[in-house]
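Reminder to self: keep the SMILES exactly as supplied, no canonicalising. Ligand is flavin-adenine dinucleotide.
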Amino acid sequence: MSALDQEFAEFASRLHGELIRPEDANYDEARRIWNAMIDRRPAVIVRCKDADDVIQSIAFARDHGFVLAVRGGGHNVSGNAVCDEGLVIDLSRMKDIRVDEERRTAVVGGGVTWGEFDQAAQRAGLATTGGVVPATGVAGLTLGGGSGFLARTQGLACDNLLGVDLVTAEGRVAHASEQENPDLFWGVRGGGGNFGVATSFQFRLHPVGAILGGVLVHPMGRARELLRFYSKFVEGAPDELTLFAALGTSPDGVPVAVILAAPWMRGNEFYDRSANLARRSWMISSECRTSISKASLDRHIRRAHGTIGSPASWPISERRLSIPWSATPRACPQNALRSCSSI
Ligand SMILES: Cc1cc2nc3c(=O)[nH]c(=O)nc-3n(C[C@H](O)[C@H](O)[C@H](O)COP(=O)(O)OP(=O)(O)OC[C@H]3O[C@@H](n4cnc5c(N)ncnc54)[C@H](O)[C@@H]3O)c2cc1C
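Structure tokens returned for the bound complex:
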């Protein structure tokens, strides 16, 4: 055993989590992230269990001159969650989620994804602004600001952040909130991941029951009209309605122009009016979209193409979701909506 191997072995023995090196069977799985174009080969991956593992990892990287990468959900397109030749602090095992129903707050670990967080909070009928795709990490999204379906009424994810626990570059544990280390707190709310390794986040939650939402899919050839409509429509949309427009490809490779919509809260007057309108038109509901086949997507697109008409024929005066939707509208929990909006 080389001297370095001996040091790795000693390091591993001090960890509560797992140390993974290139010769380990799970190395390739551990270095894989959401963006499959990223193919980096770290010297070591530490799947941390707690803040102590993070402290040990920072010290080991410093002592051995390793470049450091930090992985939350591993969802960032740039692939900063992994590095070549360096040490990856992988927080994906730090999945603690504690929801305080009475205070409407939650504390979540640095490796929690939005899907996991939503599921836990929704058991108490609560949620906070998070990403529209469930596999996105709470950490990277919140540290970068974080927009989502609740943003227009509740602000960004970082606006709902009450506090964060970090391990600094010196290996010191720090808490940042309005009261404690306020400058650091200002920095982590949108400044990205460079202020330390965030091991847990405390959020404010809001009552959020069933929401109505879904994906409006149109042929790419109508993208110009759709985006013009979108731009005009959002100007007057109420805060309860959050819409995103995107150009993408369907799961079957069909180029499409998409609007993601989430008017939320059953019982809210806007929800009821949207539901009525949606019933009269069509909408690809969250649930059916996940299993949509090329044939049915083509059918939806053909129908949309046939009935979308010219912008002048859209009943914009209603200032509601009035472009043709598909299928039947369904009320779905916030999490269900997130789980299928990744076209
Ligand atoms: C399909 C898709 C959908 C998206 N949807 C949304 C959306 O709806 N709203 C939105 O705002 N953004 C969205 N994003 C962007 C997303 O918020 C960012 O990519 C975010 O960085 C992902 O966070 P992560 O923890 O999964 O990323 P990672 O890849 O793990 O990390 C991203 C960056 O944050 C750093 N970091 C991660 N965890 C920590 C930590 N605990 N402490 C310190 N630094 C850390 C990493 O080092 C890296 O630099 C989306 C991205 C994709 C690919």
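Points to follow up:
Residues 34, 70-77, 80-81, 91, 110, 131-133, 136-137, 139-141, 143-144, 146-148, 193, 197-198, 342 surround flavin-adenine dinucleotide (CB under 6 Å).
DSSP finds twelve helices and 17 strands in the chain.
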